[in-house]
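<instruction>
Derive structure tokens from the sequence

<record> Sequence and structure tokens follow
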Amino acid sequence: MYDPREGEQQDVSQSGLALNGVMGIVQLNVGNLQKWFAGQIASDTVFGDSGVNALNNGGYIVYFSDRRGLRLAGSSGVGQNQECATVNGSLDCGFYGDNGNVASNIANGIPDTAYCTAGCTNSPGDEAPSEELFDYTAPGQTTPQNWGAWLNASTQNLTPWTRVTAQQAEDNPPIFFRRALRLADGQLGSLPPLATADCGSATAGGFTVASENPVYVWGNYNALYSDVNFGTTPATFNDAGGACHVPAAILADAVTVLSSNWTDGESFNSPDSPGGRPAASTAYRMAVLGGTNASFLRTNSGTAHDFGTDGGVHNFLRFLENWSGQTLAYDGSMVEMFHSVQATGVYKCCTVVYGAPNRAFQFDTDFNSITTLPPGTPRFTDVNALSFQQDLLPNE
């Protein structure tokens, strides 16, 4: 899929797509995972034992990491590379880089490298990766060819900001470290652990997804928009017909919500026009712990007033569609923990990335009770000694 927030440096329409926004997706069908945990999908040579033997401590935690395309700094064929960084004296991989996105002074509208000498997650002075001499196999061909030659580029060195056509982006795998997880088929009643959740039962458990990569949530998740009652304050997210919600959370580098109307084809065909990516009203019920983009100084009055910020709490969940006239119903809890190190595209609105939804955001009161927190919720116990007394026995 194409993510214009990652691909576009500025909120300005351009021809083609930037390679930085071409995301390689691993899609997890949450409904099928629920069936596997419940033993309704037979074991086979690929998955091995049945999911009923998976560890269930009041629910399940799925951890996801995809580092395909990750290259160590200094490896063959790599120019400046921020996919691995030196952090506290040791090599730490899984980073990507901010310098192609942020600026110390954007009077000319062009990101620069000065900001990251002091404030970014990557090493001082490093760009997002600029890799060289990629080979690819074009559709219908068996002989790998050089990307630069195929693109008729003046140089064979490709950068994340090299622009390609929709067909070139769609027909070939990502060539940079652009990997993400997408959760699909996660509507009300589909989340693990039970194939048919028992509404109100303590055995319903919960489901947490944790990933060092960005996560996209496609369509209704742990809720159905048609079952949300907006006539109450706050709105009521109803369970119905044996289809029940469970305590749910997503912990990731960044979380982007895609409506039930999203298609990958539209993301390639309308990379710079949210109007070609129309959303539909969709509901989500989960806690989200993730990152925001690095902020920088806005000095150009010609840019949007909030360009240079992380977009604020109402943009903590990231959008890629035209939500105009549609409602995004969210029941959960948002926790910002860090600057994202893979989804480093800065907040921008509203020319090429998204059109704002009607935001029906509220806190899920289930999270007020420790018994209905999602599995793996970070917690601590604080013991305070308020007083003490000494008991004297008769023989003392």
Q: What stands out?
A: Residues 75-82, 123-136 have pLDDT under 50 and may be disordered. The first strand starts at residue 17 and ends at 18. The two ends are 78 Å apart (CA to CA).
